[in-house]
Amino acid sequence: VVPSSSNGAKKRRQEEAPDTPAGTGTGTGPAAKVARLASTEEETIEQDGDETPDAPLTKENIMNLLKDLWSDDKCVILSALITMGDIGTKDISPYENEGKIRGLGGHTVVFQVLEKHVGCFEIQKLGMRALGNLSHLLPTKKLRGDIGCVEVILAMMEKYQGSLTVQGFGCYVIGKLIHRMKGNAERVEKSGGIALV
């Protein structure tokens, strides 16, 4: 059967079209290429077997973490700091969780734990990581500056000059705290942090 000329023209237009209206990615234009890449990425993630992200933290979850930070057991503290640090990078709702943690005083608690265990290298290292990973939002950055976080992080970097990890996390936290936050940038300058970094 020979297709009618109108059907043939329609078929050629679909084949030559840069993108398909439905966004199926079968065309040759930029949007189609992006759609194909996104589709491949989704398949790769599934094939890699990544777990489904956790739901946002509840108030009870956060309170249990904060309770662990005040433990006398170093292993419990380190585990809580690892979890706190992971929340800002792996969780489905890092910004929402950061706001909840700040509202329950969690950022202040992490900072106080750093001050309390100033001589413990592991707590300093993981505490700095947690502070950096939970410093996305401007109210958090302002709070951190107001409670003296900039000065303490710089002091830790000074104390552990031989540790690549502490220097790395310290620079990371300072970078997060001064981003879009002029007050914290001024604190870094006044504390000699520019030369230290």
Could you explain the architecture of this structure?
By secondary structure, this protein is mainly alpha-helical. It has helices at residues 5-16, 30-48, 59-69, 74-90, 94-103, 106-116, 121-133, 138-146, 149-159, 164-178, 182-190, 193-196. The longest helix is centred in the first third of the chain and has 19 residues, at 30-48. The protein is globular. The termini are far apart.
Fold topology:
Elements: H1 5-16, H2 30-48, H3 59-69, H4 74-90, H5 94-103, H6 106-116, H7 121-133, H8 138-146, H9 149-159, H10 164-178, H11 182-190, H12 193-196
Can you describe this structure in just a few lines?
This protein is an all-alpha fold and 197 residues long. The protein is built from twelve helices and no strands. Helix 4 crosses helix 5.
Shape label: globular
- Strand content bin: under 5%
- Helical content band: over 70%
The chain-level mean pLDDT equals: 78
Q: How big is the Rg?
A: 25 Å
H/E element sequence: HHHHHHHHHHHH
Helix tally equals 12
Give the quaternary arrangement of the chains.
single chain
Strand runs, count? 0
The biggest beta sheet reads: none
Q: Which structural class should the secondary elements be placed in?
A: mainly alpha
N-to-C span: 76 Å
Instruction: Show unreliable segments.
Output: 12-25, 37-52
Task: Give structural attributes.
0% strand; mainly alpha; 197 residues
